[in-house]
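Narrative summary of target 7.
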Amino acid sequence: MSTSETTMRPFAFIGGQMCLDFANTLGGLRGGVTREYLCGYNDLVAWSQQAGSITEDHATDLLHKAESHPAEAIAVLEGARMLREAIYRIFAAVATDMQPMETDLTILNAELGKAIAGGCIIPVADGFRWEWSSDSRALDQMFGPIVRSAAELLTSSERSLVRECASATCSWLFVDRTKNHRRRWCTTTGCGNVAKVRRYRQQLRWNEATQPS
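Modeled conformation, tokenized:
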């Protein structure tokens, strides 16, 4: 599997934070009809490359290693899906002002402990920043940026702006950065447009039903 093949499927990045975009790699409605976008390890690599958490060279190395270690790649994919669903449940709870389940926080914290272990502060032109070291050939190296993104969002003021799509067939999450904070849909061209068309058709039916015979 070449790196170019992993980028044939474009993923949606509408969440406003990497962790939410990762949660959105499952389409449809949790508890209802869903669409899995992480169907194989190559999809996980493709998503990570498109998210900017790994380079093209890293993606190529990971795909080569995955070919040589298929059982490990499958285990990492299963771990990624488990982490994704924990992140979804945490932020779905946050979006409704509820406390996340302890089991989900445990999953997040287990990965976070590994993700911050290689952190260090380095000087830059305008001050200082974090730098993270990791094994560039570790098949789960993309977990680090995801869980750090989740930790940053959970501990920031933007936590209160996390929303879940209002569609009855969508569970996608996003940070509502609109001026009035009244965004309801994951995308206006997707779920928002579907809702608009539905309202229009309902209005037409109502108008036809109320027309004098």
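The two ends are 65 Å apart (CA to CA).
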